[in-house]
Amino acid sequence: MADANDFLNPGLLPPSPDLVPIPSTEYPNYFFRYQNRYFPLYRHPPNVRNDPQVQLPSVLPIDRYEMERRTVLHNLVNLCLGHKNWFGPFEQYVSPPEGKLVVDVGSDNGRWIEEVSDEFPHAIHFRGIEIFPSSPTEAANNNVRFEVYDFQRERIRHGDASVDVIHARFQNFHIQDWDTFLSDVARCLKPGGLFMSGELDISLEYPNGQAANATATTQLYQQVQQIMFDRGYTPDIGAQMVERLSTIRNSAGNPLFTNIGSEVYTFPMSANNPIVAEREISALSMEYLDRLAKSLRPFMLSTGQTSVEVDGLLQHHRGEIREVNALMRYRVAWAERCA
């Protein structure tokens, strides 16, 4: 959904009605079913959608159950950040708010953009971008709009130097060509504009040598990361982001980002955390990991493994996360577009 006459984006790509409102009755046209879960339809040619040898077009499904998992993840990170939806120097880049444009790439079910837009004046305009429609595609506030298109293949549909802030989180499961994506981010940002990245590690750390009690969990995450790597993803992009941002350059060899910063938030995962103040975040962490395992099941089956193998591993993993105390890491980074 887009307005080619949007004064904030005179260079919108393309300046035509290519992006139009999507009625809810058309939502099913964007999905196909695999292993009782729903995946993005447009990335699978019709003649191979039922071919078991064809790779899934994405690591994770995009159905209602997956959106519930992503809501749990949103709440977990919000709690991790001290009941905030942003990090780094975000506030200074949207002040004064008049005419500012914030773009959320990979907006999932829109929770981040809806909550942040409620906290800031309506003078700030927000745009959410996702590859599939997930209610809402329209928000009650007229300063919020959600758009549906493949931002990796088609690039971000905003003009050069037209955006004040670009926010992208939890994209290690989705983006494949990070250098191209970050170059496109730089293209869209105004000189001095801000890019924000947030990624949760696909692994756990175990204090007091408890890794011996989490062999299935370790095997699961190692296996998922290897499959992702083989299929062109960068599962540990969170740990690489600062270095990646420093290497993005224009055709003349000049860096495109400066003032790069980062922070790592560590939080507990435990079914029975003895520290009362940490019990809420521990419980959310465990719920998130349990839901993630269920969402990863079709991806693992798509490698040719049998359901007995996959289900056995997932069952042991779910049992382990109810017994061990572990740590999770959320890695954030930010950078300013060079003038």
UniProtKB/TrEMBL annotation:
Single GO biological process annotation from the record: methylation
Alphabetical keyword list: Methyltransferase, Transferase
SUPFAM superfamilies: S-adenosyl-L-methionine-dependent methyltransferases (SSF53335)
InterPro entries: SAM-dependent_MTases_sf (IPR029063)
GO MF, one example: methyltransferase activity
Protein name: Methyltransferase domain protein
Record organism: Rhizoctonia solani 123E
